Amino acid sequence: MIGKPFRPPSFVRPTSSSGEPPAKKRRISSDVPPSRPTPGERKPLIAVENPAPPPSPSPDPNEQYYTVLWRKYTTKKNKTWDGDGVLAIIGAFATLTDSDTGKELGRGACNRPLLPGSALSLGGKELEIDSVIRKEEYLSGRIFLGGTAAPPAEPKRAKPGYKPLAAGKGKARQTSESLLGRKTKGKDGGEVDKNDEYSDLAAEFKPASSGKHFKTPLLSTTVVPRTNSSAPQPRHDPNQANALVMRRPASCPKGKQIVDVVVDPVLGKFLRDHQREGVQFLYECVMGMRCEGEGAIMADEMGLGKTLQTITLLWTLMKQNPIYESTPVVTKALIVCPAGLVDNWRREFRKWLGNERIGVFVADGKNRRISNFTMGKSYNIMIVGYEMLRVVQEELKKGKIDIVVADEGHRLKTANNKAMQAIQSLNTERRIILSGTPLQNDLGEFFTAIDFVNPGLLGQRSAFKRTFEGPIVRSRQPDASEPELEKGEARWKELVSLTSQFMIRRTAEVLSKYLPPKTEHIVFCKPTPAQAAAYRSILGSPVFTVALGNTDMALQLINVLKKVCNSPALLKSKKDADDTPSEMLQSLLPLIPPNVLNSNSSSAKLRVLDSLIHRIYTTTEEKIVIVSNYTMTLDMIERLLVSLSYSYLRLDGSTPAKNRQALVEKFNKTPKKTSFAFLLSAKAGGVGLNLIGASRIVLFDIDWNPATDLQAMARIHRDGQKLPCKVYRFLVQGGLDEKIYQRQVMKMGLANAVVDNKASASSFSREELKDLFRLDERETCQTHDLLGCTCDCKGSPEVKLEPLEVVEDEEDEDDVPLLRKASQVDMDEQEARIKARRAAKQPKLTMLFDYRHIDTKHLRDMEGAPETIDLVDGGSPKMDVDEMALAMDDDVFLEVLKEPFCKVGFVFTKSSS
């Protein structure tokens, strides 16, 4: 190296011998190419007119909408923009809104035309117009969601460096490939067909003490035998009759091939049509084929088989991959559910897949060694309760979870929920929520669920509240203005469009051909005189006045009144939820007579229940489930059953988890003499239980959350039910129960609008619900009056009013309508028309109009009268007893209503038959 001469780098330009750079060559006119004109021959530029774009595509010139750049006023030399915004100019009045948060930044007058590039000041902000947007785009709120708003036209494509999740290494990968059923050479040189899931493990775990071959478990195999063909071969035959084939991805990694993913016929043959559709939907969501995220919400109503659909999806992902010769999509799956459903999930896996095909690890008080699941290969599924998840979350982080399924996911109500934070700490992109009621109280909880499965899809929480929640809720109020209605309708449609990409919702109507009919009765029980007196005494006490101005005392008063609605004697019960009576309760007890506190005979609900179960027990072979939110109420009903010598079983919070399923199976399999009634706590066993041994269910009290009652009602109307189902919901007419039911209708109306994509509106204004504590002792039903319904309260549908007739003067050329004389006006008819028009202002209010409305006094008035009644009121026939019985569709309950001292004042009934 030392003796070699220096060589200049190759990028150094060689110099001349004199050491000076060569002179530049001067260009002359002769060197100009012929195609290029000389400067003297160059023609002048042609002037092209560039017309300005129209100011707004909106048909209304008084409404203009723009996207803008904005910044706070500053004197800096180098100015930068602070953010993007939306400028709405309506009638020369401008409003600036931030695009990211939906927050209003300023208002002011603006009466000059604006074009892209125009600058103006508004609310202390400097603006520059970026572009013009359409009114429809502004009203839908899509502009406030940024890039996540527009649904992808094409499925998400795999990147060039795509690697499937859960890619194993070494021996684990060989085992997964061997499970596909390849043929290999045996010891004798012949081919051994390894088409069973555990055939490869036979040689590896051959007993050393025995020379015999391992005996393959007697499992029905559905795996297609391998061939020598180079074409991609699916695990199961896609050409088989009734085969369920998943959608293929739109792209494939370089050097790979796409193969069909076919659901295992072991499960596919049991799937109904709606379940096949649900499995396909979930598969497309978690594979990123429907939206930018990889999450999904299955919002099917109770009884539609969400568990089976989930098991089918997990089994498919654990055995197959659309990319040929790649490891399965999912290796480890986590199922989080309420503690009472852990055993139910384990039984479902065993029912559909057996113990041999898949390993299921249940994390409970005994099995807390999570490393057996995260690090071992024996378990692919882990089932854990929400409470236990917080205990084992640190251990779970040490492993890799490919997918998380949150059963009863409506429990993840807030972003601060500890269970939600535990799931998010696992950093798993594929998340599924199973919930029959994803929207329970408000759109805020719905946003939390959406942001959990697909983070960031709807932007920030504050922006969602301003953009969607506020306008939708305001438009559902009865006194909403026309602009609020238009804006709320557009935002609702946009929200439904966005959520439909990853949320599937089917109602119980799809089961109509599989399940027997169901009849639901809303039973309004008139309070007994002693019960009404106790209610009035509490409302007339000084405590009531103080409670109206104190939130904590108001909540205590609500609990007191709910007990009075069930039975005033519950106030004196020693088995209180707080163990010691509160100061409020101690001050109220002296106001109620001792004989009322010492006996449950003053409970109107208990009297109706007594008559009902007596009729059921003596006239039918059916069994009944009685549900309550309070153990004290269950104690009261239990004493009633003991006094009548009726057999019963009971499940509440004190029942050990290991004994609960045994109670359910005993009730479903034993006759009426062994277990006639099943007492159920809605808090402890209101979800997941299958009580098809009964065909009638009574909801003795009502919950603020409609989902709690809907879950409890679905305990009997499920797969396997053979008898027509009857559901009774007990309310105290005019009391707090009825007010809570009205609130439920409001919440369910909002849920139907967003989740079920049904148009509905809030039934009652805020002013009408301020009388929450008032006892309405009128003969009529307050809920029916608030509807403005014009039916005859005898079970017939609502009266449809004909349009008003206009009396015109034929001789008058201008056809001016004439006024009627006051003596010719039927005031009753006119009042009915006014009520009907008030209801017509809310055409979306349809939920309670689906029920038949029956005033029970008509039943008792008709009892003993001739079945066919003469025409009255100018030829309008009355409804006879047989027709009212047809509307009721429940002979047993009809006989209860006919009793002379029956405490039922009003009934809303709806039948699926």
Question: What's this, in brief?
Answer:
GO terms for molecular function: ATP binding; DNA translocase activity; hydrolase activity. With 913 residues, this protein is of the alpha/beta class. Among the domains are: 71 residues, no CATH class; 185 residues, Tandem AAA-ATPase domain (Rossmann fold), CATH 3.40.50.10810; 76 residues; 129 residues, Rossmann fold, CATH 3.40.50.
Question: What are the defining features of this structure?
Answer:
913 residues; alpha/beta; Rossmann fold; 7-stranded parallel β-sheet; 29 helices; 23 strands; ATP binding; SNF2-like_sf; hydrolase
Helical content stands at 25-40%
Instruction: Find the count of extended strands (DSSP E, 2+ residues).
Output: 23
CATH class of the domain at 274-458: Alpha Beta
Q: Helix tally?
A: 29
Q: Helices and strands: which structural class?
A: alpha/beta
Dominant shape: globular
CATH superfamily of the domain at 274-458: Tandem AAA-ATPase domain
Biggest β-sheet: count, sense, barrel? 8 strands, mixed
Rg estimate, integer Å: 36 Å
Poorly predicted residue ranges:
53-58, 147-212, 575-579, 753-770, 799-819, 834-845, 866-879
